[in-house]
Amino acid sequence: MLNYIKDLILGTGEASRTFNSGIVVGVAIVAAIFLLLLILWCICAIVFRRKKCNGITLKDELGNIFISTSAITAAIRTLESEFDALVIQKIYLIESKNDKIDINVTMSFDEKGGNLKAYEANFKRRVVSKLNDSFGIENINNINIDNCAYHTAHKPSKKAFETDSTNTDSGPIEFQPLDK
After folding, report:
1. pTM of the model
2. CA 60, CA 83: separation in Å to the nearest integer?
3. For residue 2, is pLDDT > 80?
4. CA 143/CA 103 separation, integer angstroms
5. Do 53 and 64 meet the contact criterion of CB atoms below 8 Å apart?
6. How far apart are CA 161 and CA 164, in angstroms?
7. Separation CA 91–CA 108 (nearest Å)
8. Roughly how many angstroms between the first and final C-alpha of the chain, as a whole number?
9. Which has the closest alpha carbon to 85: 163, 147, 161, 160?
10. d(Cα 17, Cα 21) in Å, to the nearest integer?
């Protein structure tokens, strides 16, 4: 039996050539299917991708008003003081269909702050009302919350760029030349 398999794979007879050509055709078909699936995946990724947007353009009778993402982010971050169990980490806007905008908010929630669903529902309502009151933005499709829970009673410290940089306790930094 082993000699037959050895002759089939390594042999030079008709059965060996038929067997080896079958293997080559099978490998070629698998490679072609893989390549076709890769091309289809790339086409779908290009066609159905969701783009981050730089802001919202509001149409007015005398022209357009562009509200940048940083202005919208700053308005949403002001709500953080109303919700003591939330720490907003990241906010970004994604273009949706029909000139609507999806707002994605990554936040941390203190589990001792109460019910997460009630907090998030109240937060979403406040975001919609804040953006409508401040900028007149009404084309919000969804507000998606990505929660990264933590288990302490205190808010985590802000990132370095969010802290107050007007600290007057330290004097100016002086650069002195090196003596050689």
Report:
1. 0.57
2. 34
3. no
4. 5
5. no
6. 8
7. 12
8. 84
9. 147
10. 6
Q: CB under 8 Å to 153, separation ≥6 — which residues? A: 110, 112
Task: Report the Cα 39 to chain-centroid distance in Å.
Answer: 24
pLDDT in tens, 66-111: 888 889 889 988 888 888 778 888 888 888 777 788 888 888 877 7
Q: In Å, how far are 21, 130, 147 from 91, measured between CA atoms?
A: 57, 15, 12
Give residue-wise pLDDT tens across range 48-70. Answer: 777 777 888 888 788 888 888 88
pLDDT at 123 > cutoff 80: yes
Residues forming a β-bridge with 107:
88, 147
What local confidence, expressed as pLDDT, does residue 95 receive?
81
Written as six digits, the tokens of 162 are 């969010």
118 phi and psi, to 5 degrees? -65, -40
DSSP state of 86: E
